[in-house]
Amino acid sequence: MVARKTRQYVETAVESLTLAIELFNRPSPTGREHATVMMAAHAFEMLLKAAIYEQRKKVNFSGSDRSFDLGKCVTVAETSLGVIDEGDRVVLLALKEDRDAATHDVIVMSDDVLWLHLRSAVTIFRKVLLGLTGQDLTDVMPGRVLPVSAAPPTDVGLVVGKEVEQIAELLLPGKRRNADARARLLPLMSLDRAARGETEPPTEAEINRAMRGLKESSDWTSAFPGVVGLQLVGSPRPSDQVQEISLKVDPKRGEVPVRPAREGEDAAAYREVDTFDRYSLKLSKLGEKLASGFHGGVVPAGGRHEERCS
Question: Do residues 22 and 66 lie in contact, with contact meaning Cβ atoms separated by under 8 Å?
């Protein structure tokens, strides 16, 4: 028997997911993408809080009254509770970034991209709900209302490639539609960054760099290297034959060769390193290595000391 507070979280999660699905399935496009990802993200924050509360009896940051946000819930659910896996984490962190962008910015998501995000999220929701309460998703909502797509995508790469073509078209000279391209780009960057373990939203410099890259090349694997390792796995649910999909991370799938960026070259991805690991010698030690004595490491670039007379 789960705790009363846990049940409250679960009930709220189911309500928010129901609204997200209704928003996805409705015929009107008004606010569809923004509202769908907002409600879906809220559903998962509540569901994961239910799982965390059931185990720990608290969902607050240590030493604070502030409740866990979705990012923290995802981390705890994966690393401490083990109720979600690596592929689930990618989906949920991408959903979190989509929610943040939809709340504070503008996003545009094609039917394929939105369906991919929401349908894979529903699969995760069912798994967590079943493990937590013993209830199947069809116990709380009929299978017929789940996200519907007339032609569901079967490959992540095809979805991303199609979106990149649309973005590149918007970025053509004379189109003057950079803002539209940016809005379509953000959800792809969310998915890519989540797959690469990035938890912070992209900076404006990173967004502009990605847009420049798509202007110059249609090869989306360079622009979104994290997406290359994602596979779309589908299987029918034995209870009612509703198609389920999930994203799986395969680090060896479609490996992209990586090298350090050359001087003045834009990089596709960044990794923060400790500069003391790369430049580990003190100036005095550098002089000793060069066999030029203690002061050899501070000789000006011209190669000799300049003497000045007063």
Answer: no
